Amino acid sequence: MQKTCDYLGFCIWCLVNKNGLLIPGEPDLGVYKYKDKNCVFCCIQGINDFIKEPEFYIQGVIEQCRKNPELIHFLRMEDSFKNVIFY
Question: Is pTM beyond 0.85 here?
Fold first, then answer.
C-alpha cells in the first residue's frame, strides 16, 4: 500500500527546527499519520520529537509558510491559508 506524503515528502522536523530548510524525508523510516497528514522524516530524532509534540510541528510548518510565503504553493499548503488571496 502506497501512501501519499504531505509537504511534498520533505521532513517537517527540519523545516521547523532548521528555519525552513527543505530536506527530503526517508519513507523507509516510516510514514507517520497525524490527523489528515502523512509525514516523513529524515532522521530518528525528528520522528521522536514529532511523536512527542505533533501539533507543534504541524503548526510550525504553517508558521514557516507565513515567514516564507513561497512555501505555501510549493508545499501545497493553500488549504491552511483559506482567507488569503493568492495572485
Answer: yes
Question: Does residue 71 lie in a domain region?
Answer: yes
Domain that holds residue 74: 7-81
**Tally of CB atoms within 10 A around 53:** 11
| Residue 54 belongs to some domain of the structure | yes
State the Cα–Cα distance between residues 61 and 85, nearest whole angstrom: 19
Q: What is the pLDDT along the chain (87 residues), one digit of tens a residue?
A: 456 899 999 999 999 999 999 999 999 999 999 999 999 999 999 999 999 999 999 999 999 999 999 999 899 998 888 776 656
